[in-house]
Amino acid sequence: MVRGTFQLMKSANKSTILNKVRQYGPISRAEIAKETGITPPTVSSIIKELMVEKLVVESVLGESQGGRKPTMLLLNKNDHYVIGVDAGSDSIKVCVSDLVGTILVRSELPIYSHTTIENFLAVMIQAIELGIKDMGANGNKVIGIGIAMHGVVEVATGTSLYSANSGLRNVQIKEVLEKKFDRQVIVENNSRAMALGEYWFGDYGALESFAVINIGRGVGSGIIEDGKLRYGAQDIAGEIGHMTISLDGEKCSCGNQGCFETFVTGNAIVRRAKKKIPDAPDDLSGEKVYEYALKGQKAYQSVLEETGVLIGIGIVNLIHSVNPEKIVLGGGVMKSHEFLMPSILATIQQRALTEKARKNTIINLSRIGDDVTVLGAAALVLKRLF
User: Fold this and answer.
1) Does residue 42 register a pLDDT over 70?
2) For labeling, which of 1, 4, 36, 168 is most exposed (least CB within 10 Å)?
3) Quick check: helix, strand or coil at residue 250?
4) Is the same domain home to 154 and 258?
């Protein structure tokens, strides 16, 4: 049996208690019992098991409520580690983190164009090996590996069915890596992993529904309801990059026309800038559009403001179809947020269907930033544990 298959959780009570310690530690046994409704003897018994398994440790004494000071409980950050892998468009990034998302070591290796399945997997294995090696003696405390993969993923088998970035099909990631590392491997679409990372480590509190939109070279989204990723009947829930917002728009990489993605990615911003600005340089990039806007060039500011309107339209469609409590925006395009966000928020105010939707839908920038996908990959392992 592959190590790290998470046989630790024997009951729903055990998972509930461990999650309370994760979310609210330092916390006392009495507080756990009060907040969960689990009887104090059961809480004490399960905490004893969790301490034997080195998942929970006792901390400093809490404030007395009239009797002895209670012993507080925390996650044991120093005995279990997880690996997150972000298989991006031009590199593979790896992190090793503790149970609360603190990144301890990193590694990154390039992926060259026209790669093969064999070479792609070899680079991924090498990057993971570097991370484990850098952990030294603690490398053997890694309990699992999460992979965030661009494109279509069959989660049950851990297979990358198709990635537009690499062009590779039917990559048996889980099978190969579990055989190599003797640890459980979980593979997920990168946008869903990103949503999980933001949800787990962004400190947003308890939310029933939560969505993350990643806008960069493409547009991806992940939706979380009641703490769980939403997949939909055919595993395409959250593919808002491919909702049609213009019947006469440009052709998308998916083969359809007028997809949301064709209006708001970095490349789409560059194309629109070149059409609107006669003296735009041939080597214009999304980064340069932002740079020129920062320097006060009104034409480039206008392009970004218009992009904000288009992003706002996509968000309104998401609000009308999913109606999440909070929507978090991330990705390279959102680094131009000072020009985008005013238009995004104004568009939502103009177009959202009801006053409640306009006032109560919370729109935030990512709190995790560039590490959100690799930490989301690590969270794929953690959510099996918790």
Assistant:
1) yes
2) 1
3) coil
4) no
